[in-house]
Amino acid sequence: MGNCGTREENAVVAAHAQVQQLHLLQHSAKNALADRKHNRTFSDISDHSTPGKIEDTKDISIYNNVIAFTLFELETITKSFRADYVLGEGGFGTVYKGYIDENVRVGLKSLPVAVKVLNKDGHQGHREWLTEVNFLGQLRHPNLVKLIGYCCEDDHRLLVYEFMFRGSLENHLFRKTASPLPWATRMSIALGAAKGLACLHNAERPVIYRDFKTSNILLDSDYTAKLSDFGLAKAGPEGDETHVSTRVMGTYGYAAPEYVMTGTVLIL
Ligand SMILES: Nc1ncnc2c1ncn2[C@@H]1O[C@H](COP(=O)(O)OP(=O)(O)OP(=O)(O)O)[C@@H](O)[C@H]1O
Ligand SMILES: [Mg+2]
What sort of enzyme, by top EC class, is this (predicted)? Predict the structure, then answer.
């Protein structure tokens, strides 16, 4: 898995792929549609298709390209999660803007970031957080959002991403205040998103994303499209396998009807 980056990155990925596979080989026998309101991701923490035990957290340290932040550090960069630092809110929790640099920790590169904080009363939890860290901790590609780091302290679960200057494609398409995107830009966004998906599907161990929608396509300052939100991702078929069977997850209106009906996903 994770065969999307440079040779150097792939070497890191290959070294850790075996551990990752152990986590991801568990299957769920049941297929059911989790209840989900509005247009947000539906998920179910009882799904065993993704790693979920708290002790799995110790394995994260093997991803040497992601930083383990303390809660204090993330409180510092978001000014204690101040309301005017909020970028948006989703099924996982609230997303804040922050800035990391040498003042936060010696040796850190100066970088604007987005900090996603798990809502402890929400539908998602440790399982989605860990799945996100496991997948994005290994995958690197210009059309996948970069996971800078994470925080796991007591029951706090946070994710730190590269900051995407133009926010989500959804905001550009549906916000009344946003000016319409030119067609050339729309085409290049569609191409970028498709390249992100192709990277996942062509990885050594294919990854099935399961949450492809405009709010999960983030745009950089030059409108480069990057896929985000891997909390529902799942390892795809391997070797002679033609498909994997899963509990149905995703977002109503975006998930493929045949997948919602059968719980079977194929990579063609
Ligand atoms: N890396 C990022 N850089 C800049 N803004 C971001 C970043 N990640 C998320 N956001 C902002 O936060 C909003 C909420 O994102 P989030 O992924 O939590 O929810 P969502 O995609 O709207 O819903 P869902 O929970 O169904 O995925 C996004 O629409 C976007 O505006
Ligand atoms: Mg999202």
Answer: transferase
Question: What is the whole-number distance in angstroms between the Cα of residue 229 and the centre of ligand 2?
Answer: 5
- Tokens 């396509």, located at residue: 217
Q: Which domains does the chain carry?
A: 9-266 (3.30.200.20)
Output the residue whose Cα is nearest ligand 1's atom 13: 88
Task: Note whether 65 and 9 are within 8 A (CB).
Answer: yes
Radius of gyration (C-alpha) of the chain in whole angstroms: 18
E strands, 42-105, where?
67-68, 86-89, 93-100
Is 116 annotated among the ligand-binding residues? Answer: yes
150 confidence band (pLDDT: 50, 70, 90): very high
Of the candidates 55, 51, 64, 58, the residue with the CA atom closest to the CA atom of residue 22? 51
Active site residue 211: yes
